[in-house]
């Protein structure tokens, strides 16, 4: 099928995350983004990964251990909307969000605008000047359209003097293809 939303986000992150960086995986899920970030930041870097589901935290820890990255990453059982309790303002190089539900998990548990929008707002403040954020919006089916619709309205309100927000859509993909959002904080 070619390039997908996650591929767009990973290419974006590869261009901006350097060895020694401090990154946050705001929605750990199965741990793939956390492991990817660890591969970019290397031994001198640091990754925090958040999830509210024990299943996701355990899966992420297991993948990081198996991949040899457990010394780089810390996996935290907490909401992404609490990330500012674990990092200082303007200290983070990159933040990753994959919104929706845990693949293979309980589809009745999914992200909502009530926590995702405050988490993105906090994440923007945590980013260093020149830092980046990727937000992959998965919607439709079980999780509905409410979060996507609220995010589309919210993203328009982000201060354009401080941040650049780029949203892309896969027009030739069927059903409800995920939406990649890329954000740069002015340096």
**Termini Cα gap:** 36 Å
Low-confidence stretches: none
Strand tally: 7
Contiguous helical run count: 5
Rg:
15 Å
Structural class, judged by helices and strands?
Answer: alpha/beta
Q: How do the strands of the widest beta sheet line up side by side? A: 3-2-1-4-5-7-6
Largest sheet: 7 strands, mixed
What proportion of the residues form beta strands (DSSP E)? 15-25%
Give the SSE string.
Answer: HEHEHEEHEHEE
| Mean pLDDT level | 90
Q: How would you explain this protein's 3D organization?
A:
With 187 residues, this protein is α/β, with parallel strands linked by helices. 32% of the residues lie in helices and 25% in strands. The chain is built from five helices and seven strands, in the order H-E-H-E-H-E-E-H-E-H-E-E. The chain has helices spanning 5-16, 32-41, 54-67, 113-126, 146-155, and strands spanning 22-25, 46-51, 73-77, 92-99, 127-137, 163-167, 179-185. Strands 3-2-1-4-5-7-6 form a seven-stranded mixed sheet. Helix 2 links the parallel strand 1 (22-25) and strand 2. It is globular and about 40 Å long. It starts with a helix and ends with a strand. The mean pLDDT is 90.
